[in-house]
Amino acid sequence: MLKLSLAKLDDLFAAISADRALYLPVDDASGQAKYQKWTEGAKLSQALNTVRSAKDFFFPQTENLVDFKVKGKEIEIIDPRTEHDDFVIFGVRACDARSFSILDKVFLADPVDTYYQSRREHGIVVSMACTRPEETCFCTSFGIDPTRPEGDVSCWMDEENLYLSVLTEKGQQFVDLAAGLLEEGGDEAVASQQEATSALMKKLPLASFSTQSYGGDVLLKVFDSPKWAELSESCLGCGTCTFVCPTCQCYDIRDFNTGNGITRFRCWDSCMYSDFTKMAHGNPRLTQLERFRQRFMHKLVYFPANNDGEYGCVGCGRCLAKCPISMNIVKVAKTLEGDTK
């Protein structure tokens, strides 16, 4: 275990940013935490989590895939990618840190998404343990320990010090960049903080929420439940839940005529939209009920069925906080629980 006095926190940020881009949660003008590139004077947000997840760094909302230049009957294909510079994401909470392993199962499986792969290879994830969980948190329901976050380096913070534990070779690179600022120590302080946070987690409203009943052969039982009609009735199809979710991975690919050629780009999409998966013959999910069901079946049934029981949710609570009709995965799971038996 290593530690750093908080009085030297800006020195740590300066040392890292001198070698590579450093991003951390910073409060915007409205007081909401968003990831920003560190510059001198930027202050680490004290918010529990960012409005949007750190998923953006590896799977950005929009990105160019390929360019085409057309001259008569000749087509020139241009790869717009350049080698990504190394970068660090600091302050990633345990829920978001786990989301990367879920995304890896999608984008690093054959055939590998080389755009995502390159960003993963160049990014260092420095996670931050939680000390003030909110009532919307339920990460422990998915086997995530917010007091022991995953990543390349795990961190804990109290009123005096930042404590660091190296987990990977990339994490060691991070520590080496600030070796002169760090010293040994902090095991007792971290253990005490972990115990206190664990006690708080047990008191949260969703502490008893469990997804265990969704394991095994429940697909048809849940899929055919008549409760989907009532659950989806008030859904606006706005897609807010998918855009704040750290594990949603749906995207669309479009071509755009720049006037000087064609740019093919990828952008996030949502299974809650009426034109999602629309093909030449039409759309296989014509109703909001079918689209609504698809989202939650994917998280609770389809994904774990194909990934050794790992659910497609990390319990970050963003969908609980942001849905305009107060619909969320916990409400859906609890409503359907009786149909899984």
Keywords for this structure?
341 residues, alpha+beta, 11 helices, 30% helix
Number-wise, the strands total 12
Q: In one word, what is the shape?
A: globular
Radius of gyration: 22 Å
- Beta-strand proportion: 15-25%
Strand-and-helix sequence, N→C? EHEEEEEHHEEEHEHHHHEEHHH
Give the class from helix and strand content and strand pairing: alpha+beta
Can you summarize the main beta sheet?
8 strands, mixed
Give, in spatial order, the strands making up the sheet with the most strands: 3-2-6-7-8-9-1-10
Poorly predicted ranges (pLDDT <50, ≥5 residues)? none
The helix content, as a percent range, equals 25-40%
For the residues shown, what is the average pLDDT?
A: 93
Distance between the termini: 46 Å
State the domain count.
2
The number of helices is: 11
Describe this structure in words.
There is one protein chain. The chain is an alpha+beta fold and 341 residues long. The chain folds into 2 domains: 2-201, no CATH class; 212-340, no CATH class. The chain contains 11 helices and 12 strands. It has helices spanning 9-17, 94-107, 114-122, 169-177, 187-201, 219-223, 227-232, 240-244, 288-306, 318-322, 329-336; strands spanning 2-5, 21-27, 33-37, 62-71, 74-78, 87-92, 123-128, 153-157, 161-166, 183-184, 251-257, 262-268. The strands form 2 sheets. It has an 8-stranded mixed β-sheet with strand order 3-2-6-7-8-9-1-10. A 4-stranded antiparallel β-sheet has the order 5-4-12-11, with no helix packed on it. Strand 11 and strand 12 form a beta hairpin. The longest helix is centred in the C-terminal third of the chain and has 19 residues, at 288-306. The radius of gyration is 22 Å and the shape is globular. The protein starts with a strand and ends in a 5-residue tail after the last helix.
